[in-house]
Amino acid sequence: MGKSSQLLLSLKKRHNPVSSSTIGRWIKSLLTDAGVNTSIFGAHSTRAASSSAAKKAGVPLIDIMKAAGWSRSSTFERFYYKPILSPQVGDILLSSEVPSNDDLGSS
């Protein structure tokens, strides 16, 4: 069996590396489940959504900055802080549920 340097592999037989579009589809599915309007926000929005949800949940800003690799709070405030209107969005994003085996297909 060949070796892969890919971080994420399919759980389905053959265990091929998954493509970026497959990962994007998984993230978009989680966003939809969280009540996020995916016609406006896509997989690229998760960093802003998760850090904003953490702030709303009361996580200290210093911890958010460490987790994201930011050295200045202005980075979060200027580019990533978005008000969260639905309380369930933060709960789902912070719980980071793993997709089921049925959802984990190869690309």
TrEMBL record:
What is the superkingdom listed in this entry's lineage?
Answer: Eukaryota
Gene3D superfamilies registered for this protein in UniProt: Intergrase catalytic core
Q: What InterPro entries does this protein's entry cite?
A: DNA_brk_join_enz, Integrase-like_cat_sf, Integrase_catalytic
**Domain Tyr recombinase intervals:** 8-81
Instruction: Identify the keywords attached in UniProt to this record, alphabetized.
Output: DNA recombination
Output the Pfam families linked to this UniProt entry. Phage_integrase (PF00589)
What GO biological process terms are annotated to this protein in UniProt?
DNA integration; DNA recombination
Kindly give the SUPFAM superfamilies that the UniProt entry links to this protein: DNA breaking-rejoining enzymes
| Signal peptide bounds | none
Q: Name one GO molecular function term.
A: DNA binding
How is this protein named in the record?
Tyr recombinase domain-containing protein
